[in-house]
Write a structure and sequence with these properties.
This protein is α+β, with helices and mostly antiparallel strands and 158 residues long. The chain has two helices and nine strands, in the order αββββββαβββ. It has one domain (26-157): Sandwich (Immunoglobulin-like). 20% of the residues lie in helices and 48% in strands. Strands 3, 4, 5, 7 and 8 form a five-stranded antiparallel sheet that branches. The chain has a four-stranded antiparallel sheet with strand order 6-2-1-9, with no helix packed on it. A hairpin with a 5-residue loop joins β7 (119-131) and β8 (137-147). The protein starts with a helix and ends with a strand.
């Protein structure tokens, strides 16, 4: 092999070594929140299984969620949670939050359950989370989705 060929091979090897040693990209993306399950209790209160989604390539610690919930276009109230929950990269976890809905939201949900139809909902607000080895950040979240009654489980929507 010629001297210039060896030099080129050495440069290529060095470039590959540098590329491999830089490690994975540490990307922080906005998290998301959605309702995984809503359970209505006999006293009229609700339990909300709030799904916190980490789209980042690094772990995030979810400290606080301050969200406004609307069901079928009716304001249901404020959903406030302090999960103190670590979620791995590109993963999700669930925290159960007790919730006292507004009376109009209770009526909407009673109608939905009686007619066995789907319930559109929206969440809007902020999530406070700390990326691994980072500072606490606030992320705006906004989402719409639909829950449906679970067959055989009265008062439960998923």
């Amino acid at each position: 092999m010629t001297r210039s060929g060896l030099l080129a091979l050495g440069l290529l090897g060095s470039a590959l070594l540098v590329a491999c040693s830089s490690g994975p990209v540490r990307r922080v993306s906005e998290p998301a929140a959605s309702i995984q399950q809503l359970t209505v209790h006999a006293n009229g209160s609700w339990s909300i299984d709030l799904r916190l989604q980490n789209y980042s390539s690094i772990p995030m610690r979810f400290e606080r969620a301050q969200l406004t919930l609307a069901v079928d276009g009716e304001a249901a109230g404020s959903l406030n949670a302090t999960p103190a929950l670590s979620v791995g990269p590109e993963s999700a976890d669930v925290v159960t939050v007790p919730f006292q809905p507004d009376s109009s939201a209770r009526m909407v949900l009673a109608d939905v359950l009686a007619s066995r139809r789907s319930l559109p909902y929206s969440l809007e607000g902020t999530i406070s989370a700390t990326p691994e080895e980072g500072k606490l950040r606030e992320f705006k979240v906004e989402g719409k989705n639909t829950l449906s009654p679970v067959p055989g489980l009265d008062g439960v929507l998923r």
